[in-house]
Amino acid sequence: MNKKLISLLLSLFAFFTFSNTAFADEERSPIWQVSDEWRFTVDPYAWVPMVSVTTSNANGKSGHAGLTINDVINNLKSGGMITGEAHYGNWGLMADSAMATLQKDGGFTFNHIKASDKATLQASLVTGAVTYTVFNTKDAYVDALVGARWMSLTSTLDISSGPYNVSASSPMHTTDVIGGFKGRYRIMDSSWYIPFYADYGVGGGPNNMTWQASVGIGKAVSKMVDVSLIYRTVYFDINSGPENSSLLKGTFHGPQINATFNF
Predict the structure, then answer these.
(1) Distance between CA 166 and CA 179 in Å, rounded?
(2) Domain containing 107 — which CATH number?
(3) Which of the two ends of the chain, N or C, has the fewest CB atoms closer than 10 A to its terminal CB?
(4) Which pLDDT band, with edges at 50, 70 and 90, does 181 fall under?
């Protein structure tokens, strides 16, 4: 795991949680309370996961690829990540979107012919759900959720030599129905809390499924701002091709820092 990245995330988390000048406010409860009023949250975040992917086909051939946190950082070309929620009473809506493009340039020589290659991975993860608050006290808040997750992974390889160019693309995507829960647990009547999330989903076919889980530590630093540092994991199986002839399995897991704005 990249020690510099972990140090940076921990430094950012410490700055937001302990900066009295930037967020001077009395200590408050991080636990939301159900009321007949609208409540909104917006969470921009940074998630830098390790990637492990295995592909296989009906002929029994398989391949594995892995990316470390260093690989992700060094080859990140673009990305955007944000979560939003709206609540009224016990009911709510949530949406989460994480998108990133990784790109690596290289070159090789074949039969004394020099060529350059460019490998691109585009990953998109979008989750939407209806939520209902099933437990709410001064120390804990838990929502049940039902929704869907759409995932898309597209790998592209471009090879060029002089005036000649060859490009090959392999897109795979799935939409799975999910169910789960999320919430917070307050630590010893303080402004610190433990955020948690878990879901499980299935799609078409016997092996098409997904699950997601995260847990961490957070702090309510003002009436409008919370920050949290969590560890997040997403697992997926994607069937594709005629009669589900191709199977893509993979895991994204790594640290994530959130800034939650409450309205």
Answers:
(1) 43
(2) 2.40.128.90
(3) C
(4) very high
